[in-house]
Amino acid sequence: MASCEPREEGSTGGGGSCSSGVGGPSVVGDGYYTDMMKKDNEKTCIVMGSTGRQGGAVLRALLEKGRDPAGPFVWRIVALTRDPSQASVQPLRDIGCIIEKADSNDGASLEAVLHKYKPYAMFCVTNPFTSRWGSLSRPGSTNTELEYQQGLNFVAAAKAAGVQHIVYSSVASAHDSDPDGKGAVEVLATKARVETLVVESGIPYSVVCPTGFFEMLLSNFAGLKQGSVPGLLREGVQVQMMSYHDVGFFVRMMLEDPREWLGRRLEVAGDVTNSWAMAETLSRLRGGEKWTVRSPPEFLLKLFIPKALNRMYVSASGHHPFSLFFPCTLGCHHT
Fold it and tell me: Which is more confidently placed, 240 or 12?
């Protein structure tokens, strides 16, 4: 996994050096923090992907914290969506979000919203699985160049609007996309490219890097079937996983403690497990029901799952609470 050196004790800027090449000099100084804390504590945060799982987790975490009088900020959330008329938007209005139409593939629409609100912060997420015309036709197909363009679009919009803190959601191991020299995993490599855009933009930033998500097991494409767990990796290969819910926890932590997190990159995971361990746990939690692992034939694994992907989340980066299966001790690997 990519990792960064911790900031030196007593330093006041961003992160230390990063072994993946993404670190760099401090982006802010003491004056920034002093000025920020003197301002009115109501802060506007733009949330991309608000109807998605990561964006939804972030805005709910910020609104929950915003109701806490002891918290440093009261958050005003501007939730971005391509289609404000869709049913999934109304619950966001109900909890107090301002809804604005914008598409990450359309830089002008992002710039218009950010110019209107001049937000203090922005949560950014890019997605290779959607296009200008909605979901791509084949499950699992990607458009990484379009994802990179999304990064260019949000960086340009944030810079023009004077955003003071970007939190970009990347992915763990983004800078280790070709660990065995047998071909990069494009999804990882593109996240690394977008991270570099953020770092080199000059905008104060933090990067959160989640691993795989347990909720993916609930999807129609590769999800849980009654009595079986998908086993896309070979038996014995460990995988790091977490819940979308906890992305919100870490993003809120970064936004509300900029002295600690500006200029830094954080890889997070909830558990190190595999499909067979999950099947065993489900069997126990379901009162003795027999859960099994549903694995594709070996030749399909070799054909569609590159060895680099097998190593994508193998190395443990720590533990923190997550929602779906096990309680874990709070803690994380930060960089």
Answer: 240
Nearest Cα to Cα of residue 266 among 196, 334, 165: 334
Rg (CA), the chain: 20
Q: 134: which 2 tokens? A: 């909605």
Q: What are phi and psi of 3, to 5 degrees?
A: -150, 155
Angle among Cα 262, 161, 263 to the nearest 5 degrees reads 10
Residue 80 near residue 68, CB atoms below 8 Å: no
Q: 149-198 pLDDT, tens per residue?
A: 999 999 999 999 999 999 999 988 787 766 556 666 777 788 999 999 99
Which contiguous run of DSSP H or E holds residue 125? Answer: strand 121-125
Q: What are the residues whose beta carbons fall under 8 Å from the beta carbon of 282, sequence distance 6 or more?
A: 229, 289, 291
Q: Tell me if 169 sits within 8 A of 227, measured CB to CB.
A: no
What pLDDT was estimated at residue 87? 95
* pTM (two decimals): 0.75
Distance CA 200, CA 205 (A): 10
Q: What is the pLDDT of residue 14?
A: 35
Smallest CA-to-CA distance from 123 within 17, 229, 47 is with 47
Instruction: Specify whether the CB–CB gap between 263 and 32 falls below 8 A.
Output: no
Taking each helix axis from N to C end, the angle separating 53-66 and 245-256, rounded to the nearest 10 degrees, works out to 50
Give the bridge partners for 44, in sequence order: 76
